[in-house]
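Friendly challenge for the regulars: who can give me the structure tokens for this chain first? No prize, just bragging rights.
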Amino acid sequence: IRAELRRGLLNKPTLKQLEFIMEGQRVPRNLDRPSIPFTVTPQSIENIKEIKSVPDFRISGVMENAICDIEEPLKGTITVERSAKPIKSIELQLVRLKRVAVLRGTQKMRQKFKIFK
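First reply, four minutes later:
Bragging rights claimed.
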């Protein structure tokens, strides 16, 4: 969570950041949880300036579960199908994204805001 309090023209804004982890009820192991196949190619990468600078490759895999318990290990497979250059290492980064309504202006205390999934 990041909160910024903007104060007058001559004062710097006050900024506070807080990271936290929420844990819910455990998902029963006997549920049928779908696996997620994925493929990574230079064309599927986001936030690169020039796609020409990325060597040609194709990596595919399967994550065993779409629902992951934070206390359980991630399970799945990764296959390097082709690579124009030798691969020294593979790093896996999973990011959970949630969208939250952005608040602007004056807000009343104890006012409820909708959080979007």
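The radius of gyration is 21 Å. The mean pLDDT is 77. Your move, everyone else.
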